[in-house]
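Suppose you are handed a protein chain with no further information: no name, no annotation, nothing but its sequence. What can you learn? This example shows the usual starting point.
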Amino acid sequence: MASTAANLVEHVLPTAAPLRQWVLTVPHPWRKRLAYDGELLGALTRIFVSTVLGFYKARLSKEGAANGQSGAVVVVQRTSSDLKTNPHLHVIFLDGVYRELGDEAVFRELPRLSTREVGEVLERAVDRMRRLVRRRELSGEADGPRPGDDAETEDAAGLAAPAVDGRSPPAGPEWRRKRGPMPPLVPQALAFDKALCASLDGFTLHAATRAGALDALGREALCKYVLRPAVAQERVTQGPDGLVRIALKKPFSDGTVAVDMDPLSLLCRLAASVPPPRFHTVKYAGVLAPASKLRPRIVPKPPPGPANDVELSATPLPPKPGGSRYRPWAELLKRCFSIDVLQCASCGGRMKLVALVTDLQQVRRFLRGIGEPTEPPPREPARGPPFWKSRVLRRAAHDDDLVG
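A reasonable first move is to predict its three-dimensional structure. Written in structure tokens, the prediction is:
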């Protein structure tokens, strides 16, 4: 998360352009299919991104910036805060368009975004998605096996349903599911819950988060947010009765602040959060796409030397050609937690790496000198699967075979 966000800020996102996050969530009936069908999810992602890019081009044309082009960094998130499978899109768009004026690429910022315009974008995107799904079903692409389908793909489909609904994990091959037609959506009128937010037929679109061109900290924080992992480690704790407790980032509308589940249920939800094979969760579009002719002219140049003034050695390595480079752990710790591990706690001076000790005898001698054990801890004995480990869940499921 920290490394990719740093590369985006320093080498991809233009410094002259403000950023706006557009978040699209899909209806609950479609999530099971999109959880394992990477081809369909990719097609719907392209539709949404091209719809928003088209909005920027048309909207800025009215402001006198004809033939402008915007760009986007697309991140596909796969879970909700309670680890239920919920494929949704977090897309960082350049909040405006670039125009070619001679040899220069000039940026024109979007003057204002209204809630009605967010609703219009959602209506166009949903209409195009419906037509795509309808064409696929009429052509027979949604039914039956496909080239490359195997038991692993079927298992992923079997994990998708319980991970979306929050039910108990699958117990065997009978939970495997073939591809089928997409469930029908319940028609719902276009609604606006709050500013720059719209909902339609189970889809929701949020576009209220923005980072200015001069807000360096806000831009990197936005990149970290869209690239965050499925769950933070500190939110997962050992609960009562052998359960695992996941604390929610924000309480649900019914007052729920944490979710308890069986250990195997947690493992199944984590397995369902893994993307389908050959599906990239970070993509680039518009002027930020790799094939764009404008990209080399608008992306920032790599800074000289290591970022954040982190001194790694007396002679730091130069960045690799192309800008993106390996980021040492010390730099990532400083970016994430403001912890400078290379600063001496006693004198405040700078430390540097002198040598790596790889000889086992030298390592043991050093560990004995500081009072640390020299042998690794013994391996725990093998145990059975943790499915239905909790008697609380057994009683809740009324399973007479398991309650004894």
